[in-house]
Amino acid sequence: MTYAITQSCCADASCISVCPVNCIHPTPDEPDFGTTDRLYIDPRACIGCGACADACPVDAVFPIDKLTGELSVHAEINRERFSEIPASYPWGQPQFPRSLPTDAAAPKVAVVGTGPAAGYAVQSLLRSTDAEITLIDRMTTPGGLIKFGVAPDHPSTKQIEHTFATSYKHPRVRMHLGVEVGRHISHAELTEHHNAVIYAVGAPGHRTLGLPGEDLPGTLAAREFVAWCNGHPDMAADAVELSSERVVIVGNGNVALDAARLLLSDPDELAGTPIAEHALAALRKSKVREVVLLARRGPEHAAYTRSEWIGIQQRLAGRIVVDGHGGAGEVIAAAAEGSTAGLLRDLPVEDVDWDRAPAGDRRLVLRFSSAPAEVVGDAQVRALRVGDGSGSRDLDAGMVLWSVGSRGVRIPQLPFDEASGVIPNEAGRVQPGTYVVGWAKRGAAGGIGANRACAAETVDALIDDAAAGRLHAAPKNAKSFNKLLRSRK
Ligand SMILES: Cc1cc2nc3c(=O)[nH]c(=O)nc-3n(C[C@H](O)[C@H](O)[C@H](O)COP(=O)(O)OP(=O)(O)OC[C@H]3O[C@@H](n4cnc5c(N)ncnc54)[C@H](O)[C@@H]3O)c2cc1C
């Protein structure tokens, strides 16, 4: 029985490294690996050994006869990926992780952050060096966006935290939670106690558009809404009010889809997930009947990935419409099958009457070719004004969610590129002894699995510096570090 990869694939390539017949693609040395959001199994080559399913950290791989219900489409999605590709693949050159020469002293390494980038960096450090590792996070719960970003109705994706948790228990790893670098402790103090510091601090800020009214009560970032659903301690239980009939989400990437899906799902379906109690209670009482995904450009430029689109289409079956504004219907009808716009082929196209309040079943409306111009309201959002070059109109809404991207924030004593929102680096090296990984290194793009190769590159840079004697001395020990932390908190 052959296997297939399903929607929750994190593309970290753990499955590829254990496949004995090279049937999972793209592999890290194939050109589209850097842009794919998921991997596929070629059923013509798969021998059904199941090694990939055992290695998958997010439970995304199944024998095709076990694909039932929402998962059943994935057998065809895997097969289709290879329909125009020959059935045999040459093996790439074997690659072995670099390791620290055995005669080099074991470095003391601090890793700031406990999200996926930190998790993969720690795995790589444990495998390739004898480093003593100190993990630090400002939150009192580890996991970064696995805990507070990945939507609660994606439980199999959240499972990856268990993979990382095994390294947290390793005897060479110590963890300090509730410690913020730049507040409780400085970069200079970290370097006094460690030979190297790796920053895996993500991109906790969100981009803004600089529109009038952008900060009115009733507006927030879509990732903040998802964080509220995940019980993030920075998001008060009453931070979100679901008392209006329409919510507009600006943007149509995967985080926008997460927010829309959570707002429109049957709360009973969310009840068995790790959703925060306050969010579930609010969603049960929610008055929201319509969520509008607003995009500046046309359907051919939509930012969501195919897997996430298929997921929301299944969840909201029969409750998604395209607003015909801007010729969206014609673009979709002419789009090639499987293309971004082509995915919307089966949806009804309707000339939405925005002067009428939403009525009927809870639904999702996709509106394209409309740029947000202003948030209208006095003490609270009343509408989002949108324009398209030929004029403007108000879309009445009591809540506006921004889903226009995340960006890094400056950490005192470290360089920071304001334009790109990242810590400037070369292959992860900021300078010998200081490194960066994950979204703080590459910018806020890519799913969890993309951080695996990113972490390997950063750890390679650290190993090179360690082997060449370029790491700084760390005169103070772990006992002194613990004492310092106790004095600050
Ligand atoms: C809403 C949302 C949903 C997502 N859903 C998915 C999904 O379903 N599937 C998927 O593959 N990808 C998903 N992603 C993308 C994925 O979460 C990222 O690829 C990944 O989290 C980036 O990892 P990171 O470790 O760089 O950052 P993060 O996960 O953000 O981790 C950064 C860590 O650093 C800590 N930190 C920050 N500053 C400091 C400081 N000064 N001192 C101490 N600690 C600090 C933070 O508390 C945090 O724990 C989602 C992203 C978002 C925003």
CATH topology of the largest domain: FAD/NAD(P)-binding domain
Bound ligands: flavin-adenine dinucleotide
Distance between the termini: 56 Å
Q: Return the domain count.
A: 3
Q: Strands across the major sheet, in which order?
A: 10-19-11-12-15-13-14
Taken as a percent bin, the fraction of beta residues is 15-25%
Structural class: alpha/beta
Q: Give the overall shape.
A: globular
CATH homologous superfamily identity of the largest domain:
FAD/NAD(P)-binding domain
Highest-level CATH class of the largest domain:
Alpha Beta
What's the β-strand tally? 22
* Poorly predicted parts: none
- Biggest beta sheet summary: 7 strands, parallel
Give the second-level CATH assignment, the architecture of the largest domain. 3-Layer(bba) Sandwich
Radius of gyration: 24 Å
- Count of runs of 4 or more consecutive helical residues: 17
